[in-house]
Amino acid sequence: MREDSIVLLGAGGHARACIDVLELQGRFRVAGLLGLAPEVGGSVFGYPVLGTEEALLGLLREHANVMVAVGQIKTPEHRIRLFTLARSLGCLLPIIVSPRAHVSRHASLAAGTIVMHGAVVNAGAVVGENCILNSLSLVEHDATIEDHCHIATAAAINSGAHVAAGTFIGSNACVRQGVRIGARCVVGMGQRVLADCVAGTLLPESKGSA
Description:
By secondary structure, the chain is an alpha/beta fold. It folds into two domains: about 1-95, Rossmann fold (3-Layer(aba) Sandwich); about 95-200, Hexapeptide repeat proteins (UDP N-Acetylglucosamine Acyltransferase, domain 1). About 15% of the residues lie in helices and about 30% in strands. It has three helices and 23 strands.
């Protein structure tokens, strides 16, 4: 079994961005991707789509590492299901950090999370499992991001804020320091979150967003 290779679960747009981070990082060799049935037999940036997710167990004989490479906006369910599947099969779910990101040595990241180009995770921040910290996003000091969250491009989570599991924070959204956002919320592009949000809150994108 190769411990320097990785299989991506997903073969769409987010997988393309993940490949770019993996290539730049240079820690793992992309063995291939698992996608939807119509995608099987194709390739993404020259890496083969080897099968659907049902092929994962067979691939583990050769490749120990797996990464959930599907995106998350309206619901975290697909990413949670794939992450749970990979863990149940005994896959390794490494933390992936772009060399163009900054993660403080005083911050904490958990299994399966990816930190993409230009993102910053500051001192004392805690980020859970299977999260996406997308390009140019900011998780400020002492903030908490629970499992299965997506902090989208250029979103800012300010100091001491708490984002509960399965929540999506849209591009250019800004969460005020100390605010608590409940589980499975959707915060639209450009929103300013100035007060606590209960679980399941939907904040549409700001009308000022273009």
